[in-house]
Design brief:
single chain; alpha+beta; TIM Barrel; Immunoglobulin-like; 4 domains; 8-stranded parallel barrel; 56 strands; about 35% strand
Length: about 850
């Protein structure tokens, strides 16, 4: 799948760009001349036909971030709505994927629905083929492409919303297998011999100078599906600009802007940082003077790389794009009659790291375009915790101010709420509290950001408090043993239906940990209602209520927290600051996540986490993207995933569940089985890994467990001793030398028995890695902390985990308990045999 190739590209593909092999012009241009002028200043995005924006955040595969409820249930009507949403921002259309392999051609029915929806929208929104080709010979591919245009005729010839440049369809070759330039040219000639002249654009994702010069003579230009870091994009864009403008000026030169990219089922991807990457990407692209631009990606929830207005980020990517598109095309730049301000803030931040909040403003029509803007961080009751000095924003163009503070200064807070204000005609105009930023201790359970605009905020009047089980904003409610919770609120919105920012009725939804658990039509937040509240066990849950009107404007209440009361008191945890300093701080126990797998009964393929964090795994199931791990949909805003597993591969099976003589459950492994846990599992900083095992005697090394990239691993050697591993990255402070990866390791002095159960604990405190056998220290080594493992931290029980989530089973024996804890536990806190 495309996402896996992008993952590999992110980590190794850039090598081919940074160390470009000089090439030469590979041959004469075989393409007939064409006039590309009508294609200039077009703007596209790519769409995966399996991700429809109307899929529920809660129960379907749309992901938790789409404003799915704004779209009709009917597919054609959904595509109509999509065209209506996107066209005003300046998009020409979408390049929609078509899968082509030996089995056939995929997603043509979705294509037909999309074209009909675009036609009904009646605003000229277009669609082009984006062809994904899997392992076909040139003969097979020629046959399938000819069949594609046969089957899709006459739509591609006559439909008003199928894009044609001077009567010729424009086809994006997202992939073209292992075809050589000559073979690809022969395929294109065969298709055009049957169906006439077409325009073919080559995806330049993994292309260097040599490859670009080899393939350009047989195609009509390049496009780009891509998402990598800023410096990588800058290097490649400079390379392509030189070649396209100087050597192939007659061909189409299309570049891609890159937005957020992070894969939640293994946390890979490019580090998201609000809108900074996207804004810089636009500058890089436009500086290269391309013919056209494509925005990666329309709505891909696996990659969290989407342009379509969403629940979390509203329309900020579209709004930024609109501003650049208007200036690029020479159109009148959109402006408002009062400050059009957005607040972009992380959904969660690990204590010790920089908390960065953006305020983004767009042009205004006012005479005085200078505004004093301030930002406050508040608690759930609206009390100011920290106030940043005011900044002056000049809104004659798009402007951005970044406000930063070390999150360790706010560590006592479970969450903080940004509130923006600006001075308007000597009056202070302030926003409602923006959605919360959770200050987390061990792992960022959600890597993305909130983005809320003043124009999309429902203004409230009167009381903004609400109650859950008798507690109110920012308080802690306790779980009731009957599972019933009652909520009440007297909050009402300002009612002036001529203003989008006011009320006017709509949807009232109840959120648990940021995910919708119930919704219904309602006029306001003035409610009294029973809800079912799941047992939080040892976790810390939070609840919000939210009102959204038909125009997509929202008001979200501050959180009320819920616990079972089982973890009271405080503990000290060492935190890594951005400066590299290690700072011990005392926080509530209940704020520290952990995952507990007791194997108390048979759950089939599922690995049940009884901690309350719902961070379940799979027995034996594997595959990309969600077989052995999770789907973004299931990751939610915290450490949880409960998706569907695929069957094991041939030769592998699930570890067998058994009861022992004391009616206690355990799993039995024979060296071919494993359990996989993804979605942010191995904690990157202070942490503890405990397992209770009874291995079989073996003359080979057996891996008991391991995390991706050897973040942590433990093995039983043939002589019965234990080897412990933890890798780390050494960086050159000056940034002049490449990063070096090293692995710290040591071996125990004690041998573990094959006849009895043994408790093994690996403890890391940001300075040293320690091994405990049955509660006794048996070895340690120094290991420096680093941020590398905040992502790519999948975990395998019963073997090791290859990068990024490749299970390598080897363990033979029994395992009856596993616990992964987000801090360095003391020996008196270990599990008991």
């Amino acid at each position: 799948m495309r996402q896996f190739r992008l993952i590999i590209f992110l980590f190794v593909g850039m090598v081919s760009i940074m160390f470009i092999v000089p090439g030469s012009y590979a041959g004469e241009n075989t393409r007939p001349p064409f006039d590309k002028s009508a294609y200039k200043k077009t703007v596209w995005s790519q769409a995966n036909p399996w991700f429809l924006p109307n899929r529920s955040r809660t129960h379907a595969s749309g992901g938790p971030d789409f404003a799915w409820h704004q779209y009709p249930r009917d597919a054609v009507a959904t595509w109509k709505k999509t065209a209506e949403v996107c066209k005003p921002y300046g998009l020409t259309g979408i390049q929609m994927e078509i899968l082509i392999n030996k089995q056939g051609i995929g997603y043509l029915p979705v294509w037909r629905q999309a074209l009909e929806g675009f036609k009904q929208a009646d605003n000229g929104f277009q669609a082009s083929f984006m062809l994904t080709i899997h392992k076909l010979t040139k003969e097979e591919l020629s046959k399938q492409l000819i069949k594609l245009f046969d089957d899709f005729s006459p739509l591609w010839k006559e439909h008003p919303n199928f894009y044609r440049l001077n009567g010729m369809p424009v086809n994006v070759l997202y992939t073209y297998g292992d075809l050589s330039p000559q073979d690809l040219g022969e395929v294109i000639n065969a298709v055009e011999k049957k169906h006439g002249r077409m325009i073919w654009l080559l995806n330049s994702l993994n292309t260097n100078k040599k490859k670009l010069r080899e393939y350009l003579p047989v195609v009509d230009g390049i496009t780009q599906y891509a998402n990598w870091g800023e410096e990588g994009q800058r290097i490649q864009t400079e390379t392509f600009k030189e070649i396209m403008h100087n050597e192939f000026p007659e061909k189409i030169f299309e570049l891609s802007t890159h937005n957020t990219y992070t894969v939640h089922f293994h946390y890979g991807g490019t580090e998201p940082n609000g809108t900074l990457k996207f804004r810089n990407s636009w500058s890089i692209v436009l500086d290269a003077n391309p013919d056209s631009v494509v925005l990666t990606n329309f709505f891909d929830c696996y990659e969290n790389s989407r342009m379509l207005p969403s629940y979390e980020m509203e329309d900020i990517f579209m709004r930024i794009s609109q501003h650049h598109i208007e200036k690029w095309r020479g159109d009148e730049v959109s402006a408002t009659d009062w400050p059009d301000l957005y607040v972009c803030s992380p959904i969660s931040v690990i204590i010790g790291q920089k908390l960065r909040i953006e305020v983004i403003g767009f042009p205004v029509n006012t005479k005085d375009k200078k505004f004093k803007v301030g930002l406050e961080l508040c608690d759930a009751k609206g009390e100011v915790i920290h106030s940043f000095p005011q900044r002056t924003m000049t809104l004659d163009d798009m402007a951005t101010e970044a406000f930063e503070i070390g999150s360790e200064k706010l560590y006592a807070q479970r969450a903080v709420y940004p509130r923006i204000y600006f001075m308007w005609k000597n009056r202070r105009i302030q926003s409602e509290l923006n959605p919360q930023i959770n200050l987390v201790t061990s792992l960022r359970p959600h890597l993305l950001s909130w983005c809320r605009s003043l124009k999309n905020t429902i203004r409230m009047q009167g009381s903004r408090t609400w109650q859950l089980n008798g507690k109110t904003n920012g308080d802690t409610a306790f779980y009731s043993n009957d599972g019933m919770g009652y909520i009440s609120s007297t909050a009402t919105s300002q009612r002036n239906n001529s203003d989008d920012r006011q009320g006017g009725g709509g949807t009232l939804r109840i959120l648990r940990n940021g995910r919708e658990i119930d919704s219904f039509d309602f006029w306001d937040l003035n409610i009294s209602r029973f809800i079912r509240t799941p047992d939080p066990a040892y976790a810390l849950d939070w609840y919000n209520i939210e009102l959204e009107n038909p125009r997509g404007c929202r008001y979200m209440s501050p959180a009320i927290w819920m616990t079972s009361g089982r973890r009271k008191g405080k503990v000290e945890i060492p935190f890594l600051l951005d400066s590299g300093q290690i700072l011990p701080l005392e926080v509530e126990k209940v704020r520290v996540p952990f995952f507990l797998y007791k194997f108390e009964r048979d759950y089939g393929m599922l690995l049940f986490d009884s901690s309350g964090y719902e961070h379940h795994g799979y027995l034996g199931g594997e595959g990309y993207p969600g077989g052995s791990g999770t789907h973004l949909l299931r990751t939610g805003y915290r450490h949880e995933h409960t998706g569907s597993a695929r069957p094991p591969k041939a030769g592998r099976s699930q570890p067998k569940f058994h009861y022992d003589s004391k009616n206690k459950g355990y799993l039995e492994f024979t060296g071919k089985e494993f359990a996989m846990i993804q979605g942010g599992t191995a904690f990157p900083y202070a942490s503890t890994y405990e397992v209770i095992v009874q291995p079989e005697k073996s003359d080979k090394r057996q891996m008991i467990f391991g995390a991706a990239g050897v973040q942590v691993a433990v093995a039983i050697e043939a002589d019965g001793t234990l080897s412990v591993y933890k890798s780390y990255i050494i960086e050159d402070p000056a940034g002049l030398k490449p990063k070096v990866r090293k692995t710290a390791t040591f071996t125990s002095t004690k041998k573990i028995s094959t006849d009895t159960w043994t408790h093994i604990a690996i403890v890391y405190d940001l300075k040293k890695l320690e091994l405990y056998i049955n509660g006794q220290l048996d070895g340690s080594c120094k290991v420096p902390p680093n941020k590398t493992y905040e992502k790519i931290n999948s975990f395998v029980l019963g073997g090791n985990c290859g990068f990024p989530f490749n299970p390598k089973p080897s363990f033979k024996g029994k395992i009856k308990m596993l616990r992964i804890y987000g801090r360095n536990l003391k020996t008196n806190e270990f599990l008991r045999l």
